[in-house]
Amino acid sequence: MPRRIAAGNWKMNGTQAALSELASIAAAAGEVSCTTILCPPTTLLQAAVQSSGSLAIGGQNCHHEATGAHTGDVSAQMLADVGAQYVIVGHSERRNSYAESDALVQAKARAVLSAEITPIICIGESIEQRESGETISVISTQLSASLPTEAQIVVAYEPIWAIGTGLVPAIAQITEVHDALRALLVKTYGAQGNEISILYGGSVKASNASEIFAVSNVNGALVGGASLKAVDFAPIMQALSDS
Ligand code: PGA
Questions:
Q1: How many Å lie between the centroid of ligand 1 and the Cα of residue 223?
Q2: Fewer Cβ neighbours under 10 Å: the N or C end of the chain?
Q3: Which ligand 1 atom sits closest to the C-alpha of 227?
Q4: Is 158 a catalytic residue?
Q5: What is the pLDDT, as a whole number, of residue 107?
Q6: What residue numbers bound the domain in which 31 lies?
Q7: For ligand 1, which residues put their CB under 6 angstroms from it?
Q8: What is the pTM (predicted TM-score) of this model?
Q9: pLDDT digit string (tens) for 108-165?
Q10: CA of 201, closest atom in ligand 1
Q11: CA of residue 202 to ligand 1 center, whole Å
């Protein structure tokens, strides 16, 4: 069975004052049976690792090379060096704002694995692609072209139109995509594909989490806004733990 994972992505939110919130999230993580991950901004990573307890800490992005003349960038090796255990790669905000291609996302996933930590590879369709019936072909193409050779990965399906909007796909739509992703992972990695956690992301809240976690190939969530406060994120972790 894939591991159940509740992952939070703080995006570009949080100064040192937010470390007390992180400590509350870490305390809540100690109460649940699922894997919990929090990806704070890079500036808080090291301090976050120090107060994380059973909460794993992850980065939100990395460069695809380990070292070099890349002003302003951070490598997966550097994130691993300060204690990150995961790195999100290919989030739609990076694919769209920085024109990150599938090939670049794949190179980043490889870099994360080379640093001996785990990539969380994100994919998802736009509203136009959904409305023109292209969802399955878009996400299949994105995923195949973003996958590394090794199966030690986490996949996150995040429809772009559901991120930060309060809109969530119908359960049947989530089921259809997650089943297609599972089939693709098994085709790529054989039986190991059945062990890969596939997370759903996009406006996950305490109020909709249980219903989403009941979908057979949903193994957890990647949560943005609702991961900023323990009071919002803890019930999502609990719902996953109870599922
Ligand atoms: P959201 O973001 O939960 O705020 O919709 C999800 C994400 O971008 O990972």
A1: 5
A2: N
A3: 3
A4: yes
A5: 98
A6: 5-242
A7: 9, 158, 163-164, 201-204, 222-226
A8: 0.97
A9: 999 999 999 999 999 999 999 999 999 999 999 999 999 999 999 999 999 999 999 9
A10: 6
A11: 5
Looking at residue 209, what is its pLDDT?
97
Q: Could you say which of 21, 91, 125, 178 is catalytic?
A: 91
Both tokens assigned to 24: 């509350």
44-100 pLDDT, tens digit per residue, is 999 999 989 999 999 999 999 999 999 999 999 999 999 999 999 999 999 999 999
Q: How long a stretch of residues is the chain?
A: 243
Work out how many domains the chain is built from and give that number. 1
CATH number of the domain where residue 136 is located:
3.20.20.70
Q: Check residue 146 and give its pLDDT.
A: 97
3-state secondary structure the chain: CCCCEEEEECCCCCCHHHHHHHHHHHHHHCCCCCEEEEECCHHHHHHHHHCCCCCEEEECCCECCCCCCCCCCCEHHHHHHCCCCEEEECCHHHHHHCCCCHHHHHHHHHHHHHCCCEEEEEECCCHHHHHCCCHHHHHHHHHHHHCCCCCCCEEEECCHHHCCCCCCCCHHHHHHHHHHHHHHHHHHHHHHHHHCEEEEECCCCHHHHHHHHCCCCCCEEEECHHHCCHHHHHHHHHHHHHC
How far, in Å, from the CA of 176 to the mean position of ligand 1? Answer: 20
Q: Which two tokens stand for residue 118?
A: 């785990």
Phi-psi domain of 90 (left: phi exceeds 0; alpha: psi -120 through 50; beta: other): left
